[in-house]
């Protein structure tokens, strides 16, 4: 496919359903669609106030406490794990205000495209304001039915969001579906520690605000069963970083 100089039009050509442009991002859901937010955490992700402070304060502090890893270190690790120097199309699922999308876009080769995908209008509005560039585009939609054909992206990621989603396993399978052969996938999500006391305390606190704590083998098994290879997992405190690749042939 010939690349357009306009990232919005380039991304529109990748979509398999119509989309309108709203607040600088493509929207496949439409104005009448309300983002589902049954839990406290999900309601927060749809708050304009949270969208404003999330990138600068909330996420860096909370994720450092949960893993001991800084945002910059996370971004470097993500770029290396996804082999972005060899990728041309990246999909960042549940991108929020685009703090990873914009940074990872700069690590793609010249002419590369990073698509940030989220269901929250306030988050995407913030992403367009703070993390746009010639190699980025943002799309509003439902990650349970990603609006892209099979094998569209060279790299697919989801950092710090699967534990918020009503159906995280369906989203994970969608991520595998849109990944091209030879492409790389990476997720950062929750991890239930094996120490009983810590495990119980984290699970109890998470359930109050609507977060899910995943077992150690959950996504390793899911990706292996889906046919991915080179599955690797690194755990830090209450988080796990899992990477995998889709076979080339």
UniProtKB/TrEMBL annotation:
<keyword id="KW-0808">Transferase</keyword>
<protein>
    <submittedName>
        <fullName>SAM-dependent methyltransferase</fullName>
    </submittedName>
</protein>
<dbReference type="InterPro" id="IPR013216">
    <property type="entry name" value="Methyltransf_11"/>
</dbReference>
<dbReference type="Pfam" id="PF08241">
    <property type="entry name" value="Methyltransf_11"/>
</dbReference>
<dbReference type="GO" id="GO:0032259">
    <property type="term" value="P:methylation"/>
</dbReference>
<keyword id="KW-0489">Methyltransferase</keyword>
<dbReference type="InterPro" id="IPR029063">
    <property type="entry name" value="SAM-dependent_MTases_sf"/>
</dbReference>
<dbReference type="GO" id="GO:0008757">
    <property type="term" value="F:S-adenosylmethionine-dependent methyltransferase activity"/>
</dbReference>
<feature type="domain" description="Methyltransferase type 11">
    <location>
        <begin position="91"/>
        <end position="187"/>
    </location>
</feature>
